[in-house]
Amino acid sequence: MSDAPSSSVEFRREGGSTNDPPEGCRSRSGSSSSSGSLVGEAEEDYCENSPWVFIPEPMFTKIFLYLEPRDMLNAGQTCKRWNKLSRDDYIWRKYFQREFNVDTNIGLKPGAESWRSEFKRLTDNVPMVMTDVLTNHSHQVLHVSFSHNGKMFATCSKDGFVIVWNSAYPSTIRDSYDMRKLSWKYTQFSQFNQSDTLLLVSGVHFGSPHSTSGEIAVFTVQNGFRLRCRVTNRPYDIFGTWFSDQHLLSGDLHWLAHLVSSSILWLNKANQEVDSEHTPIRNQLYKFYNRNASSIRAIMVANCPWLGDEKKDEEGAEGPSTSDAAGQKPTTEDEEDDRRIGNPLSHYQMNQDQAMDNMYRAGRDIDLDFPYVPLENNDYASPIHYLDEYRREYEDSYYESSDDCLDDDDDQEDDDMSETEDLDNLCPKYLIFSTGSKTYTPHQIGFKRISSVNFPRRVDPGPSLKERIALRDRQRELEVIMREMSQEEIRLQYILQNETPPMEANWANYEAVADRFDKVDKLIDLHGHIIGMGLSPDHRYLYVNSRPWPKNYVIRNPLEPPPIAQEIDIHVIDLMTLKKVGTMLRAHKAYTPNTECFFIFLDVCDNYVASGAEDMHAYLWDRYYGVCLTKYQHDDVVNSVAFNPRDNEMLVTTSDDYEIKIWRSLSQAKKLGIQPVGKAIEFRKLKSRTTTCH
Fold this sequence. Notes:
Layout: H1 37-49, H2 51-54, H3 57-65, H4 69-75, H5 80-86, H6 89-100, H7 115-124, E1 129-134, E2 141-146, E3 152-157, E4 161-166, E5 172-178, E6 184-192, E7 198-205, E8 214-220, E9 226-233, E10 241-242, E11 247-257, E12 260-269, E13 282-290, E14 297-303, H8 354-363, E15 385-386, H9 388-399, H10 419-423, E16 429-435, E17 444-450, H11 465-483, H12 487-496, H13 510-513, E18 522-525, E19 528-535, E20 541-548, E21 567-574, E22 579-589, E23 602-604, E24 608-611, E25 617-622, E26 628-633, E27 638-644, E28 647-655, E29 660-664, H14 666-672, E30 678-679, E31 681-682
Antiparallel strand pairs: 1-29, 1-30, 2-3, 3-4, 4-5, 6-7, 7-8, 8-9, 10-11, 11-12, 12-13, 14-16, 15-22, 16-17, 17-18, 19-20, 20-21, 21-22, 23-24, 24-25, 25-26, 26-31, 27-28, 28-29
Helix pairs in contact: 6-7
């Protein structure tokens, strides 16, 4: 049976025509009544003897199931009985499962009116038609993000610009800034604060081809697009994120020994114009231990009000120590970064050990045993496979929202709370990041619970300049004396002064230095290269893009990560239990090897999940039913996608083809009177040409 185009399915009013003939029959003349008695007797005789009168409803149901939805809706206009049958939810459930390839064991989505209404939603209310193509960027477009009120979105590109757009049709440029004026190579990430008054922009500095240096800039969005502050950020793929409405997180990296480093996360004020030099503008939040050339990357903050209900002695009970957490950093590469597709990971670099770098370069020439075979079906897209626990929790959370800490009130735009109030009475949060322990590439998700934050009101001025100079001179004199003494004489001097001789830290032994670092509460190993993460709107679920490693692969050298698959898996993690509740295996495609792998951003709204891919398409799945519905065409890698948070029927995709495409639903396009300039590919239309979706 061929599939009918969804756009041709018209949902008509349910009451039928006021001139419908009697239930179960239609007169030969086509009218439901006659002024003459002879005609009335003829109609009555026809109705009583019509074979349609005696067909039982189960038989009608079977007949209707052979029709296409469009044809059944047309048949429903025949008479009242057929109209009633055409609205039977059993029939629409069968249609729904058949058209969208939904597992028959999955029930109706909580809160949905009927299977018929769900069929209509996936037909008319999925972003499907292309309404805008924006070509103002002159290089690869790496990221897109929406404001919380849905009125603006921002794009970042390798041309060095950040552009803020008005999201109303037709989209127009609201503001832009060339970050190359600040010695940036390109912009890579942006995020609006909760009140949509400030925009965080993250980018990469100019420097050597393997430099990991980056910076975060904050701009005002209301009353002019003005630069408000700049914060260093290293490595650049930490990205940065808003911690609260007036505070943001940045990172720094310090090498301690060969393959061992520490990642420091800083809490920064968004407004760094202070009245006194003793007023602090940033404060160290956490310091994490990294092994095997790893580091913290892609930080984000989730508001988790349910954490406030747990007992303090249960905090971090199931989480391993930071000794299991090791971030990741790719090694040096000889290719020119500007020609690469997408936004690559920052690169591992330790100049003090050139021998190890040379060994790694030699190792790159070794053929890795992994099947890089293109998929046979170019229309491949697999469904989400959820645990039963997910749908039970979905049903419970539908009626009792967990987004108590997420304030989307439009009036908040004009509410400029003080920086002190901004950190008072914080909602419990999770700091989330990608990291690793076996190799430099990110393969683990780390979680750190944040209950409260103490930001100092005043910086301790410390010794005066005169005192610091005197202390420095004494230290220099002491160093001269100690250079002339043997180790035994130095040890005896410390004993005579009842002091412990200083010992150099053994950074390679985590247990020996664990007290100097913060512990990670929970680590989830995905056994693959993590290339993107996104939170559900209520911050309950974390969706992760990952390119899997070969099964049972043994890593012998942290600088030689495993080969990665050409397909991207999507994992779903419940932040209430910190357990995986769903997986989309082989969900969409990527082709670059592990040493050139870059970020593919995904986004989650109330109804759908979308992600970019390297096969020149973005993909969209229904969150509850798990089925892939649509793919969106570009001419190169799709780096990022974003839903309008106030309108799930609007999606923006960005690509290495320098274009930004805006997609809206059929319903929205019709309502706005938009003439579409293109249309996405529906997967249910492909079933007539392929036996399965994969």
